[in-house]
Design brief:
Number of helices: 13
Bound molecules: 2-keto-3-deoxygluconate, magnesium ion
CATH class of the largest domain: Alpha Beta
Shape: globular
Length: 402
Amino acid sequence: MATITEATVIVTSPGRNFVTLKVTTSDGVTGLGDATLNGRELAVASYLRDHLVPLLIGRDPARIEDMWQYLYKGAYWRRGPVTMTAIAAVDTALWDIKGKVAGMPVYDLLGGRARDGAMVYGHASGGDVPELLDDVARFRDLGYRAIRAQAAVPGSPGSYGVRKGVVYEPAAASLPDEQTWSTEDYLDFAPRLLTAVRERFGFDFHLLHDVHHRLTPTEAGRLGRRLEDLRLFWMEDPTPAELQESFRQIRQATTTPIAVGEVFNSIWDCQQLITERLIDYIRATVVHAGGITHLRRIFHLAELYQVRTGSHGATDLSPVSLSANVHLDVTVPNFGVQEYMGHDPLAHEVFRPTYELRDGALYPSDAPGLGVELDEEAAARFPYDPKYLPVNRRTDGSVHDW
Ligand code: KDG
Ligand code: MG
């Protein structure tokens, strides 16, 4: 029996911060797992280095489910983004190893492909509506079949989702950027923005929009109703999701499909949302929801209730994590869409993924495991660079959801 002989945590910042776990076995096989938690990276790095790595040494890397249960139940303190991201990293690395040992891509270990590629949505954005429309045109020319549209809300500098560089990157500065939020301005602007997109480009592509947790259920229901004729693919994160039953009110108010889950870290965060069919898409990911093992469980539960998948895939999810998600995406019957923001080219000096973007879809390669290499020498050239996500303040100065 092979055993785990080494596990190292690699913190690197090629354009942005990433935390990666590398597990090595006595047969010399290595596996990678993403452990990046945006703005709280070192908490997960420490959880891994100080608490999980000592538990891994000498254990059988083939026993993935047992390892998951051991780390989850063995912690006593269950769930939470730090714990579940750390468990995810171990789980992902073990699937990578299992694939390499078997000589199979991870999707084959998961039962094989139900589709060749995973349709992705791209992120169109602009400082105003004309700029956003130009960006939507660009994504259409690139062959995207699903496009998310965000633009700066007039009067709210630093609006969510507006790209400044090559890719959208909200984490910045050594202290959180404090932004201004007006629900009234947003509710006035969002329908005008999305109507302009449909008026210019019609309906032959999927249109998505992210509310980013900022409305009350009443406001979200009203917005969803106003957007119905625009036939959105989804309205994302309409309200903070700690209170799962609040989605019932949105559901009753509108037929605009609802997506939620990028901040979820376990099946318990979405059990009621799924089993009461309060949402249409579950957006949990491999990296923050306990790895391939746990996300697969969430997706299978969702399948029973006709809820489809739409995993988070922002820049802070590393190519390791994105690859793991795409391997799972292509196997599940209830796949919906995969978010794909892409990465700063610097990230690819460290991470060498083998998935391919073609015709608006990501195709995993048939390389054994997850098909991603990490260049440790390159990683060492990009030291950790502390950054925070922004904080939102209402016009009266009080803190709002970001
Ligand atoms: O780290 C936070 C980002 O990943 C998040 O703000 C991006 O909402 C997001 C999305 O839908 O990609
Ligand atoms: Mg989002």
